[in-house]
Design brief:
CATH architecture of the largest domain: 3-Layer(aba) Sandwich
Strand order of the largest sheet: 8-7-6-9-10-11-12
Bound molecules: oxalic acid
Structural class: alpha/beta
Number of strands: 12
CATH class of the largest domain: Alpha Beta
Radius of gyration: 21 Å
CATH topology of the largest domain: Rossmann fold
Largest sheet: 7 strands, parallel
Number of helices: 9
CATH superfamily of the largest domain: NAD(P)-binding Rossmann-like Domain
Length: 309
């Protein structure tokens, strides 16, 4: 019973220790050394090189090291019929909620204007808008979207959510489909993108979507860079329709040093750090899934390959 670890972004030693502390019997190999390939039952991956998962005759699960799985589907030589699972981890969800709340509150209390005034040594009092008048739209309402929505509702924001297909949620208004998308945009002073990246969500945040948002709206993207057309965002901010954006993900990562986002006064750039998987927290889920597939049972947090998330 062995795991093959493939990631340049995560620390293999931390993962090996976290897994061994829960079950010292489990084998752990770091790609490209797969040890005895027939022993590998789970591949634990983040942006693995195409074809790296071939030649593992007993592979029973491809486990993402992150909440997203789009990086797995980018491999054109993915082994057929091996289930894929995303990571749903309380620590990862908490970090995402924390980060998005930081961005929403910064915009709500106009930290951008306050900082701008500070740089000019200008004692300018910017009165807050009542929180119940700040409408937040969340695109994507999975584990992280729901946790974020609940936190923002508890703070007093008026929150609505959008998914491609119908969904029911408690205190949060829900929209779906293309008509629902337009309705949600029209009512979002702050728009948060938490969507999975699939063909249908690629480029969804484009000139038309930005024009549908209310004047002065603000865009937060913590999903994938490819959800957003970067030139369209710049145009919508520079022509004064949008008040700015807070971005953690980009078309090209690392963001090239000559990219206009870096120095834009109305754009906050962070280097894809909104939620970082913590081995000590997530290892138990990986072991649980390994034990399930080892005895022929269905692993948790499976992805539907026909929809891509
Ligand atoms: C993830 C990410 O998918 O960090 O977890 O982007």
């Amino acid at each position: 019973m062995s795991i093959l670890f493939i990631s340049k972004a995560d620390n293999p030693t931390e993962w090996q220790q976290a897994l061994a502390s829960l079950d010292p019997e489990i084998g752990f190999q770091v790609w490209p050394d797969s040890g005895k390939p027939e022993d590998i039952e789970v591949a634990l991956v983040w942006k693995h090189p195409p074809g790296a998962l071939l030649g593992l005759p007993n592979l029973k699960l491809i486990q993402s090291l992150g909440a997203g799985v789009d990086h797995i589907f980018m491999d054109p030589r993915l082994p057929k019929n091996v289930p894929i699972a995303r990571l749903v981890d309380a620590e990862l969800t908490r970090q995402m909620v924390e980060y998005v709340t930081l961005a929403v509150l910064s915009r709500h209390r106009r930290l951008d204007l306050i900082r701008g005034a500070q740089l000019l040594r200008d004692w300018q009092v910017i009165p807050p808008v009542p929180i119940s008048c700040s409408r937040v739209g969340i695109l994507g309402f999975g584990e992280i979207g729901r946790a974020t929505g609940n936190t923002l509702v508890n703070l007093g924001f008026k929150v609505a959510s959008w998914t491609r297909t119908p969904h029911t949620v408690g205190a949060v208004a829900s929209y779906h489909g293309s008509e629902g998308f337009t309705s949600l945009l029209q009512k979002s002073d702050i728009l948060i993108c938490l969507l999975p990246l699939i063909a249908k969500t690629r480029g969804l945040l484009n000139a038309e979507a930005f024009a549908t948002l209310p004047t002065d709206a603000y865009v937060i993207n913590v999903a994938r860079g490819a959800h957003l057309i970067e030139q369209d965002l710049l145009a919508a901010i520079d022509n004064g329709h949008l008040s700015g954006a807070w971005l953690d993900v980009f078309d090209a990562e690392p963001l090239p040093s000559n990219h206009p986002f870096w120095a834009h006064p109305k754009i906050v750039v962070t280097p894809h750090l909104a939620g970082l998987t913590v081995a000590s927290s997530a290892a138990s889920q990986v072991i649980h899934n390994l034990r399930l597939v080892h005895i022929g049972k269905t692993p948790q947090n499976l992805v539907d390959p026909t929809v891509g998330y």
